[in-house]
Amino acid sequence: MKRKILYAQDMAELGKNLVKEAGFEIVMAPSEDPEVMKELIRDCEAVVSKTFFLSEDILKEGKKLQVVAKHGVGIDNVVDLATATKLGLYVVNTPLANSDSVAEKTIAGILAFSQKIVKQHLATKALDFESQNCGGMHEIKGKTIGIIGLGNIGQRVAKIAAMGFSMKVIGYDPFVNAEKLPDYIEYTEDINRIYKEADFVTLHLGATPQTIGMMGKEQFDMMKETAVFVNIARGALVVEPELAEALKTGKIAGAVLDVYSTEPMLPDNPLLGLDNILFSPHCAALTDEAGSNMSRDAARGMVEVLTGKKPTWCMNYDAVNQVRENLGK
């Protein structure tokens, strides 16, 4: 009998083929029903998910379970790391798979906002060629982009901005080795400098107890009135009513948003009534290329664990080894 891997949601063929070629059977969940997941996970040794949250109750049903894989980078919408570690489950993710897509989306959003591309598109379709005289369109060449979070995505954004558009790049990340950053990133240990100096402030970090709600009135008040706020990371990083107020009162010029505190957005979200925001539905990582890469890397991580190899990307490898040793696994 083949060993089984549960797919909480369907994914690109590249990763599924890798799983099959390694000799494992795929169990595809027919729905995102927690009770269905509890039933299916009982006979599986691994589980992978895009956005379905695998609660402790579900994970405890997996008596054979060894590894949880995230199809993507941030795991907060799929599994609680502390819970998985306590249960002796390795958590693998795909930190490089969607970096280019998210970085390109960030720059695309900045360009689209600065050139009013969406408004001009809609006006042109309505045969309103007077819209060409609307004013307020800007080049990004020579502007300053402030990047908070200099991981794989943040550094890719920096490279595109600096090398492709001759932008000045200021970066902040307390966990990065500043000496290893490329010369085109001007590193600062003062995060407030980014708020005060940048024409575009963009976030590229996960949602943790330390970062949730990090962008609020205090931060928006420090920003230039001409500045644009960009969040392609996690909605929980932002206090949305305070962002809405900053946009409504002209404290900042605009925002480019791909993520929200509640997804889908609720009809009463104060951001929806504003016209100085460029919205998208949490799709920065959903290019075809990134989808294939994430499927492949998530599958690779599961297969590595299940074949006794050290996973290429694991968020709790040493901690789980200790837990499993204590549990006699």
Explain this structure:
By secondary structure, the chain is an alpha/beta fold. Helix content is 36%, strand content 14%. It has 2 domains: 4-97 and 288-327, 3-Layer(aba) Sandwich (Rossmann fold); 99-279, NAD(P)-binding Rossmann-like Domain (Rossmann fold, 3-Layer(aba) Sandwich), CATH 3.40.50. It contains 12 helices and 12 strands. The strands form 2 sheets. It has a 7-stranded parallel beta sheet, sandwiched between helices. Strands 2-1-3-4-5 form a 5-stranded parallel beta sheet. The two termini are 22 Å apart.
Number of helical elements: 12
Distance between the termini: 22 Å
Biggest β-sheet strands, sense, barrel: 7 strands, parallel
Q: Runs with pLDDT <50, length 5+?
A: none
Helix-strand blueprint:
Layout: E1 4-7, H1 13-21, E2 25-28, H2 34-41, E3 46-49, H3 56-60, E4 67-70, H4 81-86, E5 90-92, H5 99-114, H6 117-125, E6 144-148, H7 152-165, E7 168-172, E8 185-187, H8 191-197, E9 200-203, H9 217-222, E10 228-231, H10 240-248, E11 254-257, E12 277-279, H11 288-306, H12 317-327
Helix pairs in contact: 1-11, 5-7
Can you describe this structure in just a few lines?
36% of the residues lie in helices and 14% in strands.
